[in-house]
Each structure stands twice: as C-alpha cells, then as structure tokens.
C-alpha cells in the first residue's frame, strides 16, 4: 500500500466542493487517514512547489494558493498516487476529461492562475516529500 497528498485548493473550498472531492476518493475505494484545514504561508508553498518557483506563472500560482484556506488530505491505498492523478484529470480544467474531478468540476475563469480544484502528488517520491511538508 502507499499514500498520497491531496489538496482541495482554495477554489474548491470556496465553491463548497470539499465533500464532492472526498466522496470521489472514498467511492474509488481509497481511505482517508488524515485530514485538516490549512492556510499555507509563502515558505510552505515554495517548498511544496519547488520545481515551479522559477517558472513565469509562479507568482500568480502563489497568489492563488494563498487566497484562502485549503484542505490537506492523506489518502491511502494500493497505487493511490497514480490512481488519484487519474481521478483528478489533467492540469487544465477546460480540457480535462469529463468524469474526472477537474473535468467535471473545473473550468477556466479568466484568472491569471489555473484554478483546478485539487492537487495530487505526481510520484511516490513526491508524495513522501509533500506529506512530510503538509503533515509535519
Ligand atoms: P498540481 O496537482 O497542482 O501539482 O497540478 P499538476 O501536477 O497537474 O500541474 P503542475 O505540477 O505541472 O503545475 C502546478 C500548478 O501550476 C498547476 O495546477 C497550475 O495551477 C499551475 N500551472 C502549471 N502549468 C502552468 C502554466 O503553463 N501556466 C499557468 N498559468 N499555470 C500553470
Ligand atoms: Mg504537480
């Protein structure tokens, strides 16, 4: 078995989609083993998105991710890292496949940052690194 980090991003919390995200995780058969509200500061987000800090979109990503509380969820199950990425769908919510969280619940809003409802770790190594950051 393995674990992954899921974040319900500020747009998901504002739009009252916490329960919808949790329901999809649970219906798929994965287990929620820890969960909390977090209002992250800049240094936590720089650590979390270390691969993106030098990209041109990083300032708007940072502003979006600090725009309100998030829900951090520790999810467990066999191949859950890959499995949750599949549930979440591709990064861009306009083109994410219907049936996925981003495809069903997200869209472009004309904002500088891509608002795509959830984050999921992209590898088992990222999952271990990110879980250590969010659940210290
Ligand atoms: P996360 O689960 O949030 O990590 O998304 P992801 O793994 O699908 O995408 P990635 O890690 O590549 O990018 C992290 C976040 O940065 C995305 O969710 C977007 O909000 C934002 N982002 C990524 N690429 C771009 C881009 O080309 N332009 C803009 N404006 N934002 C981007
Ligand atoms: Mg990512």
From TrEMBL:
InterPro entries, per the entry: NDK-like_dom, NDK-like_dom_sf, Nucleoside_diP_kinase
Binding site for ATP: 9, 57, 85, 91, 102, 116
Claim: Magnesium is one of the keywords in the record: no
Keywords: Kinase, Nucleotide metabolism, Transferase
Active site: 119
Enzyme Commission code: 2.7.4.6
Cofactor dependence: Mg(2+)
Keyword Iron in annotation: no
Gene Ontology molecular function: nucleoside diphosphate kinase activity
Class in the EC hierarchy, top level: transferase
Pfam families assigned: NDK
Domain Nucleoside diphosphate kinase-like: 1-136
Family: Belongs to the NDK family.
Protein name as catalogued: nucleoside-diphosphate kinase
Lineage: Bacteria, Bacillati, Actinomycetota, Actinomycetes, Micrococcales
Gene that encodes the chain: ndk
């Amino acid at each position: 078995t393995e674990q992954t980090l899921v974040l319900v991003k500020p747009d998901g919390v504002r739009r009252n989609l916490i329960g919808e995200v949790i329901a999809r995780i649970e219906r798929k058969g994965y287990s929620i083993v820890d969960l909390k509200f977090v209002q992250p500061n800049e240094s936590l987000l720089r650590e979390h998105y270390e691969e993106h800090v030098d990209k041109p979109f990083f300032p708007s990503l940072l502003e979006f991710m600090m725009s309100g509380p998030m829900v951090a969820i520790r999810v467990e199950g066999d191949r859950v890292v890959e499995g949750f990425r599949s549930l979440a769908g591709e990064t861009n919510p306009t083109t994410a496949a219907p049936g996925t969280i981003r495809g069903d619940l997200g869209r472009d809003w004309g904002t500088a940052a891509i608002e795509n409802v959830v984050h999921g770790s992209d590898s088992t190594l990222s999952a271990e690194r990110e879980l250590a950051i969010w659940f210290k």
